């Protein structure tokens, strides 16, 4: 086809364009240039789509234009010459050469692999664009229903009901909703797609392309017969167009020429809207229209050339005039009739159910793809095994290497690195005891895990099978993830709503000081445990794979299962190469399985070589848009939603194009996405240490870290960065040179970057001051934050516009957000331009860095329990003073014991009671108490100190009581010793004369 040749896509029609082809870091990633040749259009379109820039659909070639009319200096003009020959346009030739934007989109779609189509649909949905539902292929005159492309598209919406609103979330192809179809007969002066856009999107965003969109031309080669679909997503607002989710389809071209599509739409639609021109109605068009009017499906007929129409009473057929009618009025009338018909006829259909309809009308579906079908069959067999168990017991049954035993093993392993001297047991004895406990836990784990249960054995056999092609395995993984989502979504949604309502009740009772808050707390904890148990996805199966490897590696007696030690890391490496995220840190146990990570990276080196790699990580508080930013920047698919969607840390490999590797000096980018900090779901007692530990690890392993902040408040991240700096100073064995860039999201002010220079300078001063405090505490030579983590306040602070233009349920992404992302991406990828000492490591060196960082973290415990460096400093000073107060008490005790011992041994005192000992301590204890009170009142940071006052008082009281008990015990011992000595002397004197 000539069009594919013009776009440079002819080679991809048979050998499909793949997702890795699109996600490769190339020249477009470094600068936002416009295409100058037609063969650049398709990849430029895909790149803009990846960046969530909805202007991708109006992409044009930038060509130099001459100005022939401006050559003459004579500005006068004869009116007849000026008005003459209006039928000739100087730009006609150039306009004919311009490729229609929809031709670019559909050409790419026809040449795309199934996985790239799926990726395109996810991005088109985020851009609030319609998706291809029925796709005609002009090369073989067939029509395709690309069901696989919809598999991963998810949405959430809020429907308004009679009693209460309901929030729904799930995969689009499974959502059963009413379908409203728009079709056209003949050539009409009014755009059907424009009318449809005004119905479903009051923000005037062109969900469906129409004549008046930018770049539109007279001819569009690939859309005749195309059926697109889009959904209206209510947000539970008063101004929602419709109260529930409704799908809208749009048939491009004259409906009478596309009988397969019409038959399909007539069967699945709840309402059909017809735009027609009576002047162009021929016999064929009348015949097709007649079949629609005779069906029971409600029809709204729009007469394009009439200003008025006669209304005949018909419960399912409505006529509306369009010509010269106000657009808002026409839209309201159409919406009113759609609402009426949807309310009277409850006909719903899902895309999944549409497959059978498509088959009946000879429309090709994805099932012709043998690899897709085989992958689905394997995934379904695995699901049959899972469904035999209750959802709440699935993890316990099929994932025995996770859960309580694994958490306890991780706790013991960390404990072994953080031993403290004890008066009763030596360090070596503690180590030995912990090591024995770890071995017992591993044996218990292995006893539950082996022989492998049916699910894990079948899963590993599929992944490791040499008879299955890589594509079949990818289809299987994708299908399995989809089916697991389908299994758990409803249950998780209900539990999350219940947890939220319980948490709200608990908060209101805390405010009003009424009710049984402790009972609500227990209820919330039970719901949280049930949520964890019911949260079962593909990531948990892959985590079990890593645990099988870890357990076997530490168990030499499991000889029969040793084949997994060589096979499993290869599976992990292959998934990284194919673009799947691999779990770096277990989000449930907050632990890095080093053995597994090392083995996978070794296999990766074996497959791709020990290449140079650039590691980019991201940090931010919960729901600050971290995963969305990475997905937009690199086209990835990290999970995004409100709340804690990412758990732990995941890494994903992105390839750099060969053409720019010499310029960038690295071969791959490793993206590390992390869970949100300050998460409400984490226990308050451990949240601080968890967040600080995670942040330090993530910053430490990366060449650059994005610090993502909602709006302009960075207090939480400021505290976390201080702890990172303090930890890096303490971990002197780890030689790292990290850098960071700050991203402020949802900043509406257009000149925020300039207006916030004062705030940025204050941030720099705060970070520098805290770095100096930390350095003085740790004996480290550092005078600024930049000495530890490289950061330029003038260049490395970015302000992003809001992600959406209006109400997110129907609003497209803000183009300014995409431009902000492109600017940031160019800076990040060109890191050598602003980080002169940057030296990219090889994969093997990166592996050693991960190991060194994690081992250093295991050995560090003290600093992570603090909020910031100031707290560390204040606490250290408090500890010094507490040591002095404790010593004063102990000195008092030693002096008292020395005095009492002398008195007892000289027989001055025959008995000592506890009351007299307590009385002896009173004066010293009172003096220490007064000193303590004065310290907490007069010290520089009383607001920080006060959190430890009760603890210090308790410690001093405990020391005093221990000293009193010890003194009394010693006195009794000395009295008994004196009595024994006296008795011995008496006996000796009595016996001596008899001798």
What does this 3D model show about the protein?
It is a single chain. This protein has 995 residues and is α/β, with parallel strands linked by helices. The strands form three sheets. A nine-stranded mixed β-sheet has the order 10-9-8-5-7-6-1-2-11, sandwiched between helices. α27 links the parallel β16 (704-710) and β17. α21 packs antiparallel against α22 and α33 (914-938) runs antiparallel to α35 (949-991).
Describe what is shown at a glance.
The chain is of the alpha/beta class and 995 residues long. The chain is built from 35 helices and 19 strands.
Task: List the defining traits of the structure above.
995 residues, alpha/beta, 9-stranded mixed β-sheet, 8-stranded mixed β-sheet, 19 strands, elongated
């Amino acid at each position: 086809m000539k069009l594919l040749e013009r776009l440079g896509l002819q080679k991809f029609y048979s050998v499909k364009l793949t997702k890795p082809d699109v996600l490769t870091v190339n020249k477009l990633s470094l600068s936002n240039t416009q295409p100058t040749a037609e063969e650049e259009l398709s990849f430029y379109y895909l790149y803009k789509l990846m960046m969530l820039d909805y202007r991708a659909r109006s992409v044009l070639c930038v060509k130099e234009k001459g100005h022939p009319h401006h050559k003459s200096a004579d500005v006068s003009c004869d009116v007849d010459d000026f008005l003459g020959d209006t039928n000739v346009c100087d730009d006609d030739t150039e306009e004919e050469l311009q490729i229609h934007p929809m031709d670019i989109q559909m050409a790419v779609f026809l040449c795309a692999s199934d996985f790239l189509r799926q990726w395109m649909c996810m991005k088109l949905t985020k851009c609030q664009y319609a998706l291809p539902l029925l796709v005609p292929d002009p090369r073989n005159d067939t029509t395709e229903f690309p069901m696989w492309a919809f598999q991963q598209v998810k949405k959430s919406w809020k429907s308004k009901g009679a009693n209460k609103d309901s929030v729904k979330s799930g995969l689009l192809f499974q959502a059963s909703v009413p379908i409203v179809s728009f079709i056209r007969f003949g050539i009409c002066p009014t755009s059907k797609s424009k009318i449809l856009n005004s119905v479903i999107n009051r923000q005037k965003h062109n969900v469906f392309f129409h004549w008046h969109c930018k770049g539109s031309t007279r001819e569009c080669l690939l859309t005749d017969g195309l059926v697109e679909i889009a959904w209206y997503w209510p947000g539970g607002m008063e101004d929602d167009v419709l109260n529930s989710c409704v799908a809208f389809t749009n048939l491009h071209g004259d409906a009478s020429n596309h009988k397969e599509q019409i038959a399909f739409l007539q069967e699945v639609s709840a309402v059909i809207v017809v735009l027609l021109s009576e002047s162009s109605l021929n016999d064929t068009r009348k015949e097709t229209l007649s079949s629609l009017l005779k069906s029971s499906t409600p029809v709204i007929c729009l007469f394009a050339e009439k200003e008025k129409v006669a209304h005949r009473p018909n419960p399912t057929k409505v006529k509306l005039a369009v010509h010269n009618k106000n657009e808002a009025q026409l839209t309201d009338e159409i919406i009113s009739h759609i609402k009426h018909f949807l309310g009277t006829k409850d006909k719903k259909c899902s895309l999944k159910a549409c497959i059978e309809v498509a088959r009946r009308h000879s429309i090709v579906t994805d099932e012709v793809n043998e690899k897709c079908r085989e992958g689905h069959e394997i995934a379904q067999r695995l699901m049959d095994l899972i469904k035999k168990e209750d959802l709440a017991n699935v993890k316990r049954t099929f994932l025995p290497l996770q859960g309580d035993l694994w958490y306890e093993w991780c706790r013991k392993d960390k404990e072994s690195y953080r031993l403290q001297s004890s008066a009763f047991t030596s360090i070596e004895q503690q180590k030995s005891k912990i090591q024995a406990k770890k071995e017992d836990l591993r044996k218990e784990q292995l006893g539950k895990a082996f022989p492998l249960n049916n699910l894990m054995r079948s899963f590993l056999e599929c992944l490791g099978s040499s008879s299955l092609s890589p594509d079949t395995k990818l289809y299987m993984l994708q299908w399995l993830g989809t089916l697991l989502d389908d299994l758990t979504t409803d249950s998780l949604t209900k539990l999350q709503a219940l947890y939220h309502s319980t948490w709200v009740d608990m908060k209101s009772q805390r405010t009003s000081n009424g009710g049984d808050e402790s009972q609500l707390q227990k209820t919330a904890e039970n719901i949280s445990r049930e949520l964890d148990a019911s949260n079962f996805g593909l990531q948990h199966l892959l985590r079990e794979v890593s645990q099988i490897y870890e357990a076997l590696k530490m168990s030499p007696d499991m000889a029969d299962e040793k084949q997994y030690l060589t096979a499993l890391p290869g599976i992990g490496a292959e998934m990284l190469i194919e673009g799947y995220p691999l779990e770096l840190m277990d989000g449930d146990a907050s632990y890095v399985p080093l053995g597994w990570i090392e083995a996978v990276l070794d296999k990766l080196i074996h497959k791709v070589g020990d290449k140079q790699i650039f590691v980019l990580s991201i940090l931010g508080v919960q729901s600050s848009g971290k995963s969305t930013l990475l997905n937009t920047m690199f086209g990835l698919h990290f999970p995004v939603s409100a709340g804690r969607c990412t758990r732990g840390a995941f890494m994903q490999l992105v390839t750099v194009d060969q053409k720019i590797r010499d310029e960038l000096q690295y071969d791959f980018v490793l993206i590390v996405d992390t869970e949100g900090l300050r998460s409400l779901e984490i226990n308050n007692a451990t949240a601080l240490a968890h967040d600080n530990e995670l942040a330090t690890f993530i910053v430490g392993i990366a060449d650059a870290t994005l610090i993502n902040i909602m709006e302009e408040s960075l207090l939480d991240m400021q505290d976390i960065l201080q702890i990172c700096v303090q930890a890096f100073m303490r971990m002197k064995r780890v030689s790292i040179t990290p850098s960071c860039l700050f991203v402020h999201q949802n900043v509406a002010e257009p000149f925020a970057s300039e207006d916030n220079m004062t705030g940025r300078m204050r941030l720099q001063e705060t970070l520098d001051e805290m770095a100096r405090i930390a350095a003085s505490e740790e004996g480290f030579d550092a005078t600024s934050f930049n000495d530890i983590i490289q950061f330029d306040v003038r260049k490395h602070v970015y302000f992003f516009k809001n992600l959406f233009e209006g109400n997110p349920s129907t609003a497209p992404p803000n183009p300014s957000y995409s431009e902000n992302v492109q600017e940031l991406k160019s800076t990040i990828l060109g890191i050598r331009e602003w980080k002169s000492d940057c030296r990219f490591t090889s994969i093997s060196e990166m592996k050693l860095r991960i190991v060194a960082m994690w081992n250093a973290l295991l050995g560090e415990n003290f600093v992570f329990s603090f909020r910031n460096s100031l707290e560390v400093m204040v606490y250290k000073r408090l500890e010094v003073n507490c040591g002095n107060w404790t010593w004063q008490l102990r000195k008092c005790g030693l002096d008292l014991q020395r005095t009492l011992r002398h008195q007892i041994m000289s027989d001055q005192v025959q008995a000592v009671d506890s009351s007299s000992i307590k009385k002896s301590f009173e004066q010293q204890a009172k003096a220490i108490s007064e000193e303590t009170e004065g310290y907490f009142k007069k010290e520089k940071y009383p607001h920080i100190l006060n959190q430890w006052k009760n603890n210090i008082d308790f410690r001093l009281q405990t020391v005093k009581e221990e000293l009193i008990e010890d003194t009394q015990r010693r006195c009794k011992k000395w009295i008994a010793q004196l009595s024994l000595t006296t008795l011995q002397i008496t006996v000796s004197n009595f016996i001596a004369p008899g001798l």
